Amino acid sequence: MNTNSNVYTIVYASVMVIIVAFVLAFFSGSLKERQDLNVKLDKKKQILYSLNLDLQDKDPAALYQQYITQELIVNVNGDVVERKGGFDLDIKTELAKKDESSRLLPVYECNIDGETKYIFPLYGAGLWGPIWGYIALNHDKNTVYGVYFSHAGETPGLGAEITSHVFQSQFSNKKIKNTTNDLVSIAIVKPGKTAEGQDYVDGISGGTITSHGVELMLKNTLVNYTNFLNK
Amino acid sequence: MKSLFSAKNKEVIVGPLSLNNPITVQVLGICSALAVTAKLEPAIVMGMSVTIIVAISNVIISLLRNTIPTRIRIIVQLVVVATLVTVVSQFLKAFAYDVSVQLSVYVGLIITNCILMGRLEAFAMSNRPWESFLDGLGNGFGYALILVIVAFFRELLGSGSLLGFHVIPASVYESGYVNNGLMVMPPMALIILAIIIWAHRTKVKQLQDN
Fold first, then answer.
1. Which secondary-structure segment (H or E) carries A74?
2. Whole-number Å distance between alpha carbons of A189 and A213
3. A141: helix, coil or strand?
4. pTM of the entire structure?
5. pLDDT string in tens for chain A (231-residue length)
6. Scanning every residue of chain A, which has its alpha carbon at the shortest distance from the alpha carbon of B185?
7. Min CA distance, A78 vs chain B (Å)?
8. Which of A126, A118, A136 lies closest to A158 in space, CA to CA?
């Protein structure tokens, strides 16, 4: 057979593409369930990290069950819409809604040694791509208990340092409201500088834009929760 | 059975480990070697993934080699590689999620790894499946070997750990030792790789130019 004829080439390419399509569809379909489970488990891990828990060698699903008592859904008026299902909401899509009043926001209520904590998801922009995280507040909905930040592609050693323990541990015990009880979030400043009228932490040298991104992320996400935080 | 492991076949699989190493001698696949070697674990997974993909795609292309129309042979090779890479990437997402997050785009970028196209075009297109399989394994191992060596030094000196376990005792840190942050950055991978190539060429006389 002439393997160089036009007809042969076209038929060969077509058959190949159809076979490949079937193979890929088969693998994608049969592995989907496991992949979704992994994504959910990873989300649970990230939420737990904001509670300063050591997850080494532990089952995150069991810890999540143990600590997280309710997955609330609240609206921008601060009312609890539902007491379950918050986990399935994606803060990214909710923040993208133009109509602010239609946003449904997840809040994770948890219990650590008898004390209630609230965890709020965060989403924003770094230098090269999205950054996200979780912030856990004490029962007063003001004092930070712990934070967790992650990123898609910040510069290693510079912006990517927002994931480091050194950076994240600074947030503990900072307050997100000022003395008159208004939500002001937490400023991230150049090491050595201070911020007026709000709590602040040191930014990352060489990671100024990412640090600023974290500051904006905290502010812009938490502002949606203002009414809930004041209740 | 004897012919399966003839001297020539042995050379096919052992050659890429040293004399014909894809990274240090052919200088192929450098970009992924720099990107995934900050830690040992992703380097091992990347090495394994490339080995599996280059071996299987070599076999497939070798089986098809007499049917592939010459004019679209590169496209056929790419489709085979891309399919395998996608399947491996799906498997990693399902069974080794943490590692797949660390490797991020670099699993997908195996498609553009020069080692794959190089072996398919230079070897699989003109050799039988079994030899092609061995050639794929050999080149994959050669690639993985260098990745593991680079990652060993980068993780040890950059993070003080190996495979995530801290190996440098706390007393060393107390006496003033600090991890070399530069090791975590890509430039040091390039320098370590250059040192490996240097050492390799110094030791192996056949590789030296006159």
1. strand A68-75
2. 12
3. coil
4. 0.75
5. 777 889 999 999 999 999 999 999 999 999 999 989 988 998 998 999 998 887 777 788 888 888 888 898 998 888 888 888 888 888 888 888 888 888 899 999 999 888 899 999 999 999 989 999 999 999 998 999 999 999 887 877 788 889 888 899 999 999 999 888 888 999 999 888 888 888 999 998 888 999 999 999 999 999 999 999 988
6. A156
7. 35
8. A126
Residue A75, burial from CB neighbour count under 10 angstroms (0-12, 13-18, 19+): middle
Strands A200-202, A187-189: parallel, antiparallel or unpaired by DSSP?
parallel
CA distance A161 to A66: 30
Chains A & B: contacts with CB separation below 8 Å: 60
Contacts of A18 (CB under 8 A, 6+ apart): none
Phi, then psi, of B117 in degrees rounded to 5: -60, -40
Q: Helices B73-95 and A6-49 meet at what angle, rounded to 10?
A: 20
Which residues lie below 8 Å from residue A162, measured CB to CB, with a gap of 6+? A126, A131, A149, A151, A154, A168, A204, A207, A210, A211, A214
Judged by a CB distance cut-off of 8 A, whether residue B90 touches chain A is yes
B185 contact residues in A (CB cutoff 8 A): 156-157
Enumerate the residues of chain A whose CB falls inside 8 A of the CB of residue B38: 156
The span from the CA of A138 to the CA of A110, in Å, is 10
Please determine, for the modelled complex, whether the ipTM score is greater than 0.90. no
Q: What CA–CA distance (Å, rounded) separates A145 from A108?
A: 13
